[in-house]
Amino acid sequence: MRKLRADDIPQIEEMLVATGAFTDAEVEVALELLEIVRIDLNQQDYEVAIDEHAGRVAGYVLFGPVPLTEGTFDLYWIAVDPQTQGKGVGRRLVAHVEQSVKKRGGRLLCLETSSQGGYERTRKFYERAGFVEESCLRDFYKPGDDRLTYVKRF
Predict the structure, then answer these.
(1) What is the 3-state secondary structure (H, E, C) of 117-145?
(2) 23 phi, psi to nearest 5 deg
(3) pLDDT in the model for residue 105
């Protein structure tokens, strides 16, 4: 794992699009957050870890502490290049986040995802990683598209 570099951002954009899992608006938000991390070296809201393989970004994760909480962290974004999916990149990224959260006194790691069928594989990945569905906010994203919150407690 390593920190974000400026030359990672175009590769991450390609990867986000190639997964087919994210809308154009979601890709735009992901890139905005990466730019915040890249430009504002003093910000403490977000941390990015890069998993690299053969000189290319194989996957990335963006996470950080939740303001006004004690020991609660959010896993905001995780994506793995389709060419390296199924090779442990996602598991390594989640393990890195868990280690970082624990080192910082974290007790709760949260993430949210959609209830739509296209996210089934994503939800299964989170469940295999030990996350438990904690809540469902019906029709959150749009009618028929619920927000599912998953949690891992330490």
Answers:
(1) HHHHHHHHHHHHCCCEEEEEEEEEEECCE
(2) -75, 165
(3) 95
